[in-house]
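hey team, just a heads up i'm posting the complex here instead of the shared drive bc the drive is being weird again. everything in one block, sequence lines first with there labels, then the predicted structure for the whole assembly after. its two chains so it's a bit long, scroll down
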Amino acid sequence: MSMARLVERLLQLVPVLLGVSVIVFVMITLTPGDPVEIMIGDQVVTPEQEAQMRRDLGLDRPVHERFFVFIGNAVQGDFGESFYHRRPVIDVIAERLPATIELSLVALLIALATAIPLGVLAAIRRNSILDRLATVGSLLGVSLPGFWFGILLIMLFAVHLQILPVSGRIGYSSEIDPITHFLLIDTLLRGRPDAFLDALSHIIMPAITLGLPMTAILMRVTRTSMLEVMRQDYVTFAEAKGLPRRRVLFRHALKNALIPTVSVAAIETGSLLGGNMIVETVFGWPGLGRLVVESIFVRNYPLVQAAVLFYAVTYVMLNFLADILYTVLNPRVKL
Amino acid sequence: MKRTSLLLSAALLAVGATPPAAIAQELVVGFTQDANTLDPGNHRNRETETIIRNMYDGILTRDSSMNILPEIAESYNQVSPTVYDFRIKDGITFHDGSALTAEDVRFTLDRLTREGALGNDQTSPRQSLLGPVSGVEVVDGNTVRVTLSEPWPLLPAMLPFNEVVSKSFVESVGTEGMATQVNGAGPFKLVDWRKGDSIIMERFDDYYGGAAGIEPVGPACVERVIFKVIPESASRVAALLAGDVHIINELPAFAVEQVEASDTATVMTVNGTRSFFIAMNLEGDVFDDPKVRQAVAHAIDKDLIIDKILGGNAAAISGILSPDAFGKNTDLPAYEYDPEKSRALLAEAGYPDGIEITMDTTGAYKDTAEAVASLMTRAGITTKVAVGEAALLTEKWRTEGGEKSGDMYFTSWGNGSLDPQGIFVPTHVTDARGNSAGYANPEVDSLLDAASTEVDREKRAGMYQEAEAIANADLPYIYLWVPQDIYGVSRRLSGWSPSPDSRINLHDACLD
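-- predicted structure starts here --
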């Protein structure tokens, strides 16, 4: 892909982001519920004090004025202060983001590492017991609610067997100076294998819970597309040529069969990032998903706006990445 | 690493690592929420305060029976209805070693109450919690004088909710720095705030000891304290049972038996401060008839719901105030459970075939609201529960005098100060914020108004008792119950008991 093409694709982000900003702002402003009322809660305030709070949050200005202030600041990278944290929302989001990304990536790795071999095996041994087990398993994987599966894991591994911690990212005594903010990497960079194992023991259950539905989907996609590919003429031809079966499967069939898997994985990763608030809540994982949900309930406008924008960018970028991978895997496709 | 499993130990050996050195004795609280900020003057959130209160002390505090006691103050007295003097203890130091003076106390109160005092034109969101404070000055070396613009007997009850900061520290780090850094005078120092995950504190060895009236006085018992954020209740219970944490808040009623049956933990309860009630829309054409309201009251078997749904962990009420509140009327008549009487009252009111209504509530109260609704339905008041989001229902039902839609609202109001001013006024005064029923009785208004500035405690209590009796007869609300706060605690824990204001003060807590 040429550099010009890449730049062009990146430039296409601008109108998308502008559109998303407008939609987010309008949606959150039109949603009923008053941040100041929520903040006051069960307290007695005078109308003057209430007006003062409204002024402090910048909510005394008319909606159109607030919109232009928001857009004007946003293009400069300033998304305002969180109503509750009383710090720039960018800082608040940046603190939570690495935990979410780390969890999503580990979940993705687990999903890919289990789904592809299982999908291929199920396709090769079609209608065998293994195939049926994998099919039933994937149905369960898609349908088990994350909060329920997560709690089951906790009850088994943390309460009964006591081999994994219930929640959190790392033990309190494992204090690691951040480098990348990804604990699995930082602990190794700092030469602390004990802390690495500690972090690993914390991430296993949430990552499995988060990755389960994705594993199921990817397994099915791999199986179907593997079956499809194996019916193609060139595979039959390769087999007829007398090439070893292993070579036919992995060199000829799998490479092409993986194209849909890769693009589904890239898009599903977007939903991993956005869709893990439940898993983050169950495992007390200090990520962005939980923060955003909490912020929606209390109408923390600046934080919700910035977070939704972030999700939009991520989604667009992952789609972009999927397109690039497509061209790598299948040279016939051009961007 | 807190828990070394066989598996991980083996793995550790395999990579040739040495396990970390034995760690200090640490007490872990499994808590529902992270702090929003560490600045005691820049939030409006009960959970944030519960965490911060372990690093910052207040001018006054409360013991676990809710008595108000001097903490950073040595003593205090009311000079006149609008003037209070607080004498500040000598020898208190902040975590950075600097001495706490009356000037720090004055600065703290000024920062909380003066407009624009946080800088950047921002006023403390806690300003309204200190009511009519109009001036703060240091009078003789170590006495701080607080002047009110009108008499306000609530001041001592509200001061335990506000913590003293160091003037020089605030001036050096600014309001921005205060959000993440701590230099308090409380029993624990901040070690690390892992946002969204945990707040780690360690014992402050030069602590002055805290309130002289609350034993033991001296540095804290445990070396480290951790507030671990676990929002999901089932996970919080699991962490307690697994021994990962030693105290959890908001133990769900359904888990009480499980925790009590375990070897590692037990259950502790304390009377809460949140009153539950059903607002009936008096502006509608059904509930403007007192007979219909009485019919509702007789239709609900509170004891049954407390027993079956709340696990026995609540006290029934016949007025808005909690049994522990100041000025509670203990002689209020109860509307006995009598569904036949409900039907008869409905017939008298012109509804021989009963009525059909909708009751709004939030997701958190769905189960109890549905139980109440089924009892009402049995008595001829066919009730449908409509679950809505809190922010939306607030807008619908807290109209401050604006027009109301809807029939009924199953809700609650918290009153941490246990002073009627914090709950009676907002829910019963004409057009007040929380007056979801649309109740208007000039007699109640004038009693509550007079009580808010009455300095004679006995007279003041009498006024609230009278107002509660009137409201009980008028019945704008069905007063339901005050649930107990339920905590799960490790059997290793001693010296700690839950407090009605839901603070978790860990100064006296020990682990064996």
